[in-house]
Amino acid sequence: MQAAPVRATAIPSFTDALRAVESLLMSGGQRTARRNAWTSVLEDRRRAKDRVEAQRVLEAVSSATS
User: Fold this and answer.
1) 3-state DSSP helix/strand/coil percent for the chain, to nearest 5?
2) Contact, 4 vs 16, CB < 8 A?
C-alpha cells in the first residue's frame, strides 16, 4: 500500500499577508511610494546607528590618547 502524497502549503509570513492586503487596497504607485518611504526610514536608522558607533569609536580613541 502506498502512502498518499503530502501536499505542503507554505504559510504566508506576516509581511506577505500585509503586501497582499496592500495590493488589494492601493494602486501600484501608492505601493511603490510606501515601500520607498519605508526603505528610507530603514536607511536613516542604519545611518543613525553608524553615527552612534563612529562617535563611540572617536570618544574611545580620544580618551586613550589623553
Assistant:
1) 75, 0, 25
2) no
